[in-house]
Amino acid sequence: MIDSLSPNHEPRPADTPVDMLVFHYTGMADAATALARLRDPEAKVSAHYLVDEDGTVHRLVPEDRRAWHAGEAAWRGHGDVNARSIGIELVNPGHDLGYRPFPEAQMRAAIALARAVIQRHPVPPRNVVGHADVAPERKKDPGELFDWRRLAGEGVGLWAEPVTADGGPAGDVLPDLLHRFGYPVSDDDPIPAVTAFQRHFRPERVDGMPDAECAARAAALLDR
Ligand SMILES: [Zn+2]
Fold first, then answer.
1. Which stretch of DSSP H or E encloses residue 142?
2. Which neighbouring-strand residues pair with 88?
3. Phi, psi dihedral angles at 25 (to 5 degrees)
4. Same domain assignment for residues 37 and 123
5. Where do the DSSP E strands lie in the chain?
6. How far is Cα of residue 71 from the mean position of the Cα atoms in its chain?
7. 160 part of a folded domain
């Protein structure tokens, strides 16, 4: 762990638990560019940690401070995600600059870091999320190449195995299931939340269509 401290943070509000973990990708050309931006006082953005593709972990903001990573976001009815979360940035150019798989060394380091975070804070598995989950209309990160299934297998977050949809809920109930699970679902347009759910829990097909398989997976997750 390398201390690469950022000036971009503030006190957490009193009486708010740290009960969320939010994963991001940097969406920038390389680690150096991302680190510079996350430490630039003019940019007013940060995260608690940055994990490089070679597994190097940079600590940017102490965990007891409110870092500025989620922006306008919501989860399970709570609007101030930054107040109650730890933010981890994964170096990756992202969908706009050349989205690519997260290397093994980076995944290993991210999982070890996440496991340590959830041992220090009361983060329930449902509250291990991606930026897209909490801001589906604005964000895609960390995206469908991030191996959430593996994380869950190592004790970080939830996963629902593929299920046969026979007898399960129809696709049209998916927006309601996602709302109950925690997603901010727009009444006017559920497609962004459905897409975010697919990036996280059904990465084989990210098409925004609320189909029966997604509904079955969401129902299974709600039972956890
Ligand atoms: Zn992000």
1. none
2. 23, 49
3. -110, 160
4. yes
5. 2-3, 9-11, 20-25, 49-51, 57-59, 65-67, 85-90, 128-130
6. 13
7. no
Using CA atoms, how far apart are residues 43 and 220, in angstroms rounded to an integer?
40
Domain that holds residue 28: 2-153
Q: Is residue 164 over pLDDT 80?
A: no
- Same domain as 49, residue 135: yes
Strands (E), 126-173: 128-130
Residues 145 and 176 both lie in one domain = no
> How much distance in Å is there from the Cα of 22 to the middle of ligand 1?
8
pTM for the full predicted model: 0.97
pLDDT at 112 over 80: yes
Co-location of 58 and 86 in the same domain: yes
Compute, in angstroms, the gap from residue 165 CA to the centroid of ligand 1. Answer: 32
Enumerate the β-bridge partners of residue 159. none
Catalytic residue among 53, 89, 144, 213: 89
How far does residue 25's CA lie from ligand 1's centre (Å)? 6
170 alpha carbon to ligand 1 midpoint, in Å? Answer: 31
Is 89 catalytic? The answer is yes
96 — pLDDT class (breaks 50, 70, 90)? very high
Q: Which two tokens stand for residue 146?
A: 């991030």
Residue 173 has pLDDT above 70, yes or no: yes
Q: Check whether residue 136 and residue 184 sit in a common domain.
A: no
Domain total of the chain? 2
Instruction: Please tell me whether residues 214 and 127 are part of one structural domain.
Output: no
Q: Say yes or no: 94 and 143 in one domain.
A: yes
Q: Which of 89, 40, 87 is nearest to 67 (CA)?
A: 87
Residue type, position 62, single letter: P
Considering only the C-alpha atoms of the chain, give the largest distance between any 2 of them, rounded to a whole number of Å.
54
